[in-house]
Amino acid sequence: MVVEPLVLDVFRPTTDNDAENVGREWKTKFVDLVKAHTRSIEWSMADDKNTATVNYKQRIAPPVLEWAIDTTIKYTFKSDSVSIKVEGLPQGKHLPSCFPRLSFTPTLTLDLTSVRWFGRGPGESYRDKKLSQLLGTYKASVEGLWTPYEFPQESGNRTDVRWVTFSTQADERRLSARFLNRPQGFNLSASHCREFDIEAAKHPYELERRMRGEVIIRLDWDHNGLGTGSCGKHPLMTLL
Prior knowledge:
Helix content: under 10%
Strand order of the largest sheet: 1-6-13-12-9
CATH architecture of the largest domain: Distorted Sandwich
Number of domains: 2
CATH topology of the largest domain: Beta-galactosidase, Chain A, domain 5
Order of helices and strands: EHEEEEEEEHEEEEHHE
Distance between the termini: 32 Å
Largest sheet: 5 strands, antiparallel
Strand content: 35-45%
Shape: globular
């Protein structure tokens, strides 16, 4: 069901408000060009042969400049689940004052397009734009999670999510996710577009041409606010 490796990501498509404040810094510090560079991999199998552990050490960094997030990712595989523990240390010169988000971005097969979650809904919400969305259990299609703004930009986030399940329309297969030891929940979004495709599009029709067959999910530990930077206050920040 997962067709590409999970990617630790920090970038989001620039919003109209971002362009007037923190978005300029993200551009000059190449946050949109960050890639994961694997430094080492170790794995082991438990004596009972029912649990496998894989440890990655990765450097999350842009192709130039001197800042990075040195990251250790531990995967623990069991027969019906996998748990992932992430530790990261931002360091180096010219670190951004904040990141757009801190997230895992799995990619799923096309048929897992039915989404059910417990969190805020049914519409999109962000840390500084969420109180109109009530906590509850909601269901939507992947297409239904997207908010089609006239100018393509960051869209479709859901806040305070405790768990989410992606399944086929007939519920024949399903994949669920939740954050452990995080009672306030996490941020969720899903679409058929990657962040750099949204960032590159200037009109909705250009984005339609960039739609992909897979389901791209974002499971955000934290996500920057929206603010009113084009006409007012800066957003609530995602701290380093």
